[in-house]
Amino acid sequence: xxxxxxxxxxxxxxxxxxxxxxxxxxxxxxxxxxxxxxxxxxxxxxxxxxxxxxxxxxxxxxxxxxxxxxxxxxxxxxxxxxxxxxxxxxxxxxxxxxxxxxxxxxxxxxxxxxxxx
Length: 117
What we know:
- The protein is an alpha+beta fold.
- The chain has helices at residues 9-25, 55-65, 85-95, and strands at 30-35, 40-44, 46-47, 52-53, 71-77, 100-104, 110-115.
- β6 and β7 (110-115) form a beta hairpin.
- α2 (55-65) packs parallel to α3.
């Protein structure tokens, strides 16, 4: 487990944003990504009859749709123990395989830091 207080302030910010999106929208996951210019994109799980996206893939899609060229970091707040490979692949597609992905529980405590690759 990673001490959330030991996180870089910018990483702590995306964890907080992801946690807020999850709580505000009452969805299973919240996510936030930070692009190479410092802009952040925040999303929750999308669960429509015709469209299902994890919060992390939705946040990556929002970054791409807004013109982001790369990612510096990603965070997901979830009850799940790990991040699915498809989510990591989406982060890697935009940010590269070395992009850190912070995985936090609903309490905001970072349980693990992974790389997208």
